[in-house]
Structure to design on (500 residues):
């Protein structure tokens, strides 16, 4: 703060606004701030971002940023930062420490500003502004919720996976902050961090958190319009809308929502027109005070192939990562999974699996499925020796290169004596369907590819087809020995090819 106030470029007005912010904590170079209302948030984000960021970076001697959440209780909490002037409806808050000189400077500054809404400096009028926010956000009502569904256009589906809830998400040190930010955003869409940007390696729970935000926001505000989309689906939808002359419908689908959840933004890389469209979608939503949540495999700064104006927007709100979970969290995840899927596995087996698979939660779950499926087929108890046998092939420490979808498809086609065209084609014969589903399952388990990417590798199929295949093979493995054996043998072949 002292660095900021001594800066020659900062005006008393800006300082007055900065003083309204309450620090909540510092995390990885991000200072979390709470303010009492949207106007202060908007002002700090748009008018003093550069100055505050520079002062913070200088004070911390590292690159630093800040992220703001709105906490209406702070407005009521006004002293020590504010004093109240007037009473009743005229009541205003002013910066407590403002001297006459400062006020005059402030007024001059305000004249220079020529932005009428900013003349509302620390004037409270919280009720009016809440109304404005409601007006902007939900078309104006007396409570802080969206209007009933019958006053809107028919809603587009939210596209949420019912399994991905906050209740089914295990919190550990690796994801605690991302989880807290996700809850905050769901509880107060566009009032907390906007956008929320979550990044991290594959299989660490980013998609799960996105869906959980959508579910929770819908529970709290039943008519809130939520839309989940993977960036590859966004791309395909955009391309189709252009070729079919339905650009208007496309824009309505993505711009007339209260919460847009966009997964795996890195896949927009290199798709210039789609990126441009997303840029405008983002701006429209942000300007209209709608929440955007984005996930990516990398932080914004490292997203090559994105324009600076796009990357800087990703940095407007809060950036948080998810890390690989520690052993305790992995065990807790397996315990929860075993409970929800009714899979019987004693604690020492869960610990064994958790100790062997550490970098990807999807693999962790896959290992539990295999162990319990094997026990089921053989009518055996799940115990440590069985787990060791089953996971012997799955767990290899010497894997050097990444497995690709082409490898999985090639090996699966060869194993079943099919051509690649057959495997990826449209025939619905039972043998072909099962082989195709096994190949999709193995792509999901052995590669880091997203569902839409896997769908694309199989002749442009939808991601829901891949999800269905994944679920189907998991079930069949526990019911049919032949399927279990085929999946196991194929896994070994693919891994061997990859090693050799
Ligand atoms: N903390 C957690 N608690 C419970 N389950 C989790 C947790 N984190 C991840 N999972 C589960 O792990 C699987 C993979 O997670 P998810 O698909 O969300 O990862 P991701 O980070 O989005 O991966 P990708 O980048 O490949 O899309 C899902 O089944 C998810 O439910």
């Amino acid at each position: 703060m002292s660095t900021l106030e001594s800066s020659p470029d900062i005006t008393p007005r800006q300082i007055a606004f900065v003083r309204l912010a309450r620090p909540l904590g510092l995390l990885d170079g991000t200072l979390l701030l709470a303010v009492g209302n949207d106007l202060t948030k908007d002002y700090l984000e748009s008018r003093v971002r550069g100055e505050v960021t520079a002062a913070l970076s200088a004070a911390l001697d590292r690159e630093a940023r800040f992220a703001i959440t709105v906490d209406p209780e702070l407005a009521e909490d006004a002293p020590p930062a504010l004093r109240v002037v007037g009473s009743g409806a005229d009541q205003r808050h002013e910066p407590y420490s403002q001297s006459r000189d400062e006020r005059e400077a402030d007024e001059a500054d305000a004249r220079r500003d020529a932005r009428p809404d900013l003349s509302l400096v620390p004037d409270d009028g919280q009720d009016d502004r809440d109304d404005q926010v409601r007006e902007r956000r939900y078309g104006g009502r007396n409570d802080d919720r969206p209007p009933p569904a019958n006053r809107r256009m028919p809603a587009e589906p939210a596209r949420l996976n019912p399994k991905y809830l906050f209740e089914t998400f295990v919190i550990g040190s690796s994801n605690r902050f991302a989880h807290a930010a996700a809850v905050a955003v769901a509880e107060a869409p566009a009032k907390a961090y906007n956008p929320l940007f979550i990044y991290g390696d594959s299989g660490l729970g980013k998609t799960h958190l996105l869906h959980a935000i959508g579910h929770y926001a819908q529970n709290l505000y039943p008519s809130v319009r939520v839309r989940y989309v993977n960036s590859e689906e966004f791309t395909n939808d955009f391309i189709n809308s252009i070729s079919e002359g339905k650009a208007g419908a496309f824009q309505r689908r993505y711009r007339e929502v209260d919460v847009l959840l966009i997964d795996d933004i890195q896949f927009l890389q290199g798709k210039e027109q789609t990126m441009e469209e997303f840029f405008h979608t983002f701006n429209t939503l942000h300007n209209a005070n709608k929440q955007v949540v984005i996930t990516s495999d990398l932080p914004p700064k490292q997203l090559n192939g994105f324009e600076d104006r796009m990357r800087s927007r990703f940095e407007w709100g809060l950036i948080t990562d998810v890390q690989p979970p520690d052993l305790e969290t992995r065990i807790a995840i397996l315990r929860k999974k075993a409970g929800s899927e009714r899979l019987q596995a004693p604690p020492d087996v869960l610990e064994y699996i958790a100790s062997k698979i550490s970098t990807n939660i999807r693999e962790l779950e896959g290992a539990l499925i295999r162990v319990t499926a094997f026990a089921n087929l053989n009518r055996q108890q799940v115990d440590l020796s069985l787990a060791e046998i089953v996971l012997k092939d799955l767990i290899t420490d010497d894997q050097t290169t990444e497995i690709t979808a082409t490898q999985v498809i090639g090996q699966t086609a060869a194993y079943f004596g099919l051509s690649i065209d057959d495997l990826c084609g449209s025939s619905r014969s039972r043998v072909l369907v099962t082989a195709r589903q096994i190949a999709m399952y193995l792509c999901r388990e052995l590669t880091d590819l997203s569902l839409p990417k896997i769908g694309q590798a199989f002749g442009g199929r939808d991601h829901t087809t891949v999800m269905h295949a994944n679920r189907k093979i998991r079930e069949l493995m526990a019911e049919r020995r032949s399927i279990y054996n085929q999946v196991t043998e194929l896994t070994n072949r693919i891994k061997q090819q990859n090693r050799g």
